[in-house]
Amino acid sequence: SYELTQPLSVSVALGQTARITCGGNNIGSKNVHWYQQKPGQAPVLVIYRDSNRPSGIPERFSGSNSGNTATLTISRAQAGDEADYYCQVWDSSTVYVFGTGTKVTVL
Amino acid sequence: QVQLQESGPGLVKPSETLSLTCTVSGGSISSYYWSWIRQPPGKGLEWIGYVYHSGTTNYNPSLKSRVTISVDTSKNQFSLKLSSVTAADTAGYYCASSSPTPSSPFDIWGQGTMVTVSS
After folding, report:
1. What is the rounded CA–CA span in Å between residue A64 and residue A74?
2. How far is CA B34 from the centre of its chain?
3. Chain B touched by A27 (CB under 8 Å)
4. Average pLDDT over residues B85-108
5. pLDDT tens figures, A9-46
6. What is the 3-class SS of A21-78, one letter each residue?
7. What is the pLDDT at residue B24?
8. B17 to chain A, closest Cα gap in Å
9. d(CA A75, nearest CA chain B) in Å
C-alpha cells in the first residue's frame, strides 16, 4: 500500500516562512492535495493538484511537488495559520491516502 | 453552495453496526463522488470509501469487509454502515465530496460527527 510521511511538527516565527513536506515513493508523478484542520473543525482544502489554490485561500499558501517529496509553503505566517496540515493523493492500490499530518505552531 | 451534514447515533455498542447518514443541500447528489472519512481522537485522517450517484462504490481495502456505502438520490442522502465495530472504530466521521476523477481533491466537507464505540 502507498504511504505518505510528514514531519510530526513544524514551528515558524510570526511573519516567517514554514515548509511542510510530504514524502512518498515517486510522489512527483501524482497529484497532491493539502488540507488545513483547526481544532474541532473539519479539514479545509488549501492546495489542490500540487500548486493550485481554491478560491478564498490566501496567496501566502503555495505548493510544489517533485521526485519523492511534495511541499506546502506558508509565507508570512500568521497566528491564524496554526493548525494540522495533511497531504493526500490517490493511488491505484490504496485509492485515497492521507499523510500522517503535521502540526504547525506559530511562535 | 453545496453543504453536507452528518447525522446518526453518537454511541454504538461493540459488535454492532455503526450507521450514519449525510444529507446534501444546496445542490444535486449527482455528478460527484460522495465519501466517508474518519479520524480517531488525536490521530490522522482515514478514507473509508465512496459512492457515486449511480450506486457504484469503492472502499478502503483495510475496511472493505465491514463497510457498505449507499446512496438515496430521492432524498439527496448517502449513508455509511460499518459492521462489527470495536473501540478502534471510535472516531470523528466526516462526509465529503470530490469530482468523479481519481486525482480530484475533497473540496467540500461536512462538519463531522463523533461516534464512540462502548458498552
Report:
1. 12
2. 8
3. no
4. 95
5. 999 999 999 999 999 999 999 999 999 999 999 999 99
6. EEECCCHHHCCCEEEEECCCCCCEEEEECCCECCCCCCCCEEEEEECCEEEEEECCCC
7. 96
8. 24
9. 23
Partner B contacted by A2 (CB < 8 A): no
Looking at residue B83, its amino acid is S
Contacts of B85 (CB under 8 A, 6+ apart): B12, B14, B15, B16, B17, B18, B117
- Residue B13 and residue A99: Cα distance in Å, rounded? 30
B61 lies within 8 A of chain A by CB: yes
HEC-encoded secondary structure of B70-106: EEECCCCEEEEEECCCCHHHCEEEEEEEECCCCCCCE
* Burial class (CB within 10 angstroms; exposed 0-12, middle 13-18, buried 19+) of A82: middle
Cell numbers 466526516 correspond to: B94
Chain A nearest-CA residue for B47: A96
Tell me what pLDDT residue A105 has.
Answer: 98
Strand A18-23 relative to strand A69-74: parallel, antiparallel, unpaired?
antiparallel
* Residue whose entry in the numeric block shows the C-alpha cell 470509501: B49
Q: Which residue of A has its CA nearest to B106?
A: A45
Which residues from chain B sit within 8 angstroms of residue A41, using beta carbons?
111
The interface residues of chain A toward chain B in range 52-71, judged by CB-CB distance below 8 A, are 54
For residue A41 the three cell numbers come to 473543525
B45 part of contact set with chain A, CB < 8 Å: yes
Cβ <8 Å between A45 and B58 = no
Quote the minimal CA–CA distance from B21 to chain A in Å: 17
* pLDDT band, residue B116 (cuts 50/70/90): very high
